[in-house]
Write a structure and sequence with these properties.
The protein is an alpha+beta fold. It has 3 helices and 6 strands. It has a 4-stranded antiparallel sheet with strand order 1-2-5-6, with no helix packed on it. A two-stranded antiparallel ribbon has the order 3-4.
């Protein structure tokens, strides 16, 4: 009994150090950086652009998607993104209704037979994107901000 309690305490102490960042190992393929590592690399790359001129930014990244000037600041915005569609499977049993006559919606479309509260398959669309904005003062990058769900 004494051995069991020491083992239990040892396991509790070892597991207490687990955090969501450390537990990320099981969601990341072997040999691939974690999202925390990708974010750190992305932010380091952005920081390396501080002090660069507008010409250097354009030479490295191309023509910005948008520019804006206000109060001595010039902003260069770069946008990247894509829309991805994937099929969502239905739940339970869904059988198209080809003539039973009782599965019509309000607009007169045949919606099929829903058995046991099931839902039909559908197409899901997700937009992934990132916008990086360089803030230039006196012709040099002073700060960089980014937003989006696909920056790193």
């Amino acid at each position: 009994m004494r051995t069991l309690s020491i083992t239990t305490i040892t396991a509790a102490v070892l597991l207490s150090g687990c955090t969501s960042q450390q537990a990320e190992w099981w969601t990341t393929p072997i040999g691939q950086p974690t999202s925390t590592e990708r974010q750190a690399d992305f932010e380091a790359t952005l920081r390396s652009n501080k002090g660069r001129t507008e010409s250097e930014i354009i030479a490295a990244h191309g023509i910005p998607a948008a520019t804006y000037e206000a109060d001595g600041h010039r902003y260069l915005a770069y946008k990247a993104g894509q829309q991805v569609a994937y099929a969502r499977p239905g739940t339970g049993i869904y059988a198209p209704d080809y003539g039973a006559g009782n599965s019509w919606n309000k607009t007169g479309q045949n919606v099929g037979a829903m058995i046991g509260g099931s839902t039909p398959p559908s197409l899901q669309s997700v937009e992934y994107g990132c916008e990086v904005t360089y803030d230039l003062v006196a012709g040099k990058v002073t700060s960089i901000i980014y937003q989006g769900n696909a920056c790193y």
